[in-house]
UniProtKB/TrEMBL annotation:
Domain HTH cro/C1-type: 7-61
Lineage: Bacteria, Bacillati, Bacillota, Bacilli, Lactobacillales
UniProt GO molecular function: DNA binding
Gene3D superfamilies per UniProt: lambda repressor-like DNA-binding domains
PROSITE patterns reported for this sequence: HTH_CROC1 (PS50943)
Descriptive protein name: DNA-binding transcriptional regulator, XRE-family HTH domain
Pfam families from the UniProt entry: HTH_3 (PF01381)
Organism of provenance: Carnobacterium alterfunditum
UniProt-listed SUPFAM superfamilies: lambda repressor-like DNA-binding domains (SSF47413)
Amino acid sequence: MLIGEMIKQLRIEKGLKQKELAEVVDISRESIGNYERGTRAPSAEIASRIANALDVPVGVLIGEDADVIFSKLIELNDGLENGFSLNYDPIDKHEQTLLRSVIDYMKQSKQREMEKYYQGLEQGRKDNTDKP
């Protein structure tokens, strides 16, 4: 599934209109429409904001499992320490900074995801103990 199709599917599942998603992401409704039709692709930053608004990892938008993406980011982060990307091409300081910000965002997203998961487990336990 293409990123635009995934954005549309997730938006509809959330019960959001294009305009509502656009407002949350702070972009135009036309941009959301363009992404959904596949006439334009969102930047990494916009894709990240859309994913956050739809409460999914960025990897879901591009059709990859979040754990696979997280593993790739960890590997990329290790390479950044030596100034190389995944394919071992040298990268400049600006690219390193951009990649580190994406990695940091993904780490924070993963942490939030795990916190929500454990809160759900705790709430489930509490609900079960409250029943007679």
